[in-house]
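Take a record:
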Amino acid sequence: MEKMPGMEKMPDMEKGVHYQVTFLPDKIQMKVPAGMSVLAAAAEAGVELEGPCGGKGTCGKCRVKLVEEKGEEWVRACQTPVNRDLMVEIPQAEVSVQRKSDLSRRAVPVDLASGIEKVKLKVTPPSLEHQVADADRFLSALDREDVKLSLEALRALPRALRRADGLVSAVLCEDEVLTVEAGDTTERLYGLAVDIGTTTVVAALVDLRQGETLATASASNTQNIFGADVIARIEHATQKAKGLEQLQQRILQVIRKLVARLAAETGVKEEEIYQVTVVGNTTMSHLFLAVDPANLAPSPFIPGFSRMVSLKAKELGLNTAPQAQVYVLPNIAGYVGADTVGVILATELDKKEGVNLAVDIGTNGEIVLAAHGKIWSCSTAAGPAFEGAQIEFGMRAATGAIEKVKITDEGLQLQVIGDSEPKGICGSGLLDLVAELVRTGIVEESGRMLGAEEGDDLPPVLRQRLSRAGSGNSFVLAEAGAGRKDDVVLTQKDVRELQLAKAAMRAGIEILLSTAGIRYHDLDQVLLAGAFGNYVDKYSALAMGLLPPVAAEKIQSVGNAAGAGAQLALISRSVREHSMEIARKVVHVELSSRSDFQDKFVDALSLTQGL
């Protein structure tokens, strides 16, 4: 049995002793060795459970309920050994599906030629006088030179010919017949565009004939049970037995579920999806294909591949047409991946006039600067604070998450997703809150939060919210109430986590501007990509110094541009070809090799425009 997250914290396993763990509410049962952690058992059983810290016991996000005759108990799954048969209730997953999937919008006109086509054929029937093989008669009717039949097409052909009296539809990709279908099905030609994010996976079902997006869906990247960031997942892939296989199967399982959901929603059959495009950061691309990512972690951060990869869906076990063509778009560098290529495609940064900056704010923050026909990019390890991880009451943008905060003379105004009782705070709310706390003097520019005994100059409605959480100062957002036994608070540690994330992003921006010789007033546009970028308040981002000091009207949200780029590459062969040109053209700036990065990072720790 392999070593799993949290297992290293457990006592020695009893050899040969196994216990049954039942995960509720889905009643998934799993026999595991005595001593294995509940988190490891969940991973083994394929149960979705968060573990942003990788089972180190530091984040508290893997809390589950043990249901026993003597009562119920909330525990941390990574710190709880299986030492008896257990009933484990998994908290209802946070549903942040629609927020991000709605953002995969496309506004770039492209040549609608996906490379996949369907051709209707009438194949002459055989006779005693003309005993010609089905494949030969089919190719004769197709009347194209140098076309080959895939094994899938060869197997489907005899039955298809006889089901519809020789009327068939051939699905072609370039010079290969992928499959053959009975009757005229030429109007049913579909593709799938997938954006594999470190936190969220988004899939779009597209009509390849019309270029129309029929539906989008998203789900959590369930690899998060092994850690919130790419480094934790690289460690799991390289240091755990079958770790790489586990990570690949996790992401494939998510995609299969999204395909099933999209098919059910639209009435499209899964086997009518004939082409797939995939974007993601370089680590996600490697894990999707089960390519060893070991050399991404140490300097000089070398990927196993950078060029576009093409393969068949059946090689991955996707629930599309088995012969569906899968394209994994090219990466730029070890930590700047195909998702950045997708952003450039969707925003046409390489074609825009003037000076344009694109920022994808997230765990693996990616920054692109385009100016005067040149493009520079870098990535910065902002950490998962913007995604709500490593924050005491942080959560994804789901029902119950505080997404906007305003402090007025009357006190604290909270906007909560779903208009429900607040359960925690997501990234956009966190940025708003800290910006407001700095503005009102509750948090100093250095990041220090006032203590409960301070703040004499504050209005009473704010001063009474100053408290202590453990050994540090805190600010109460919502008092304990129905369905919540604890106050929702922002801690001093939370502010420090946000400072580090903000400083990493801003330092990366400063390095790119310095490299290109660009000053703030030269910037014509700042584009915010990704779900966080779409919902973040640009005035809060400016006030905190997350973004450079430009006029607010220059800042524009572009939604899930990476996913939109994947859709463009799906419907247009020329866009796929252009993606390879972009990957070659972009100049990657390696921040770890810059002697000035640390100075810029330290300067950016100030929670103002202090640079």
In short: The CA atoms of residues 31 and 317 lie 26 Å apart. The first helix runs from residue 38 to 45. The first strand starts at residue 18 and ends at 24.
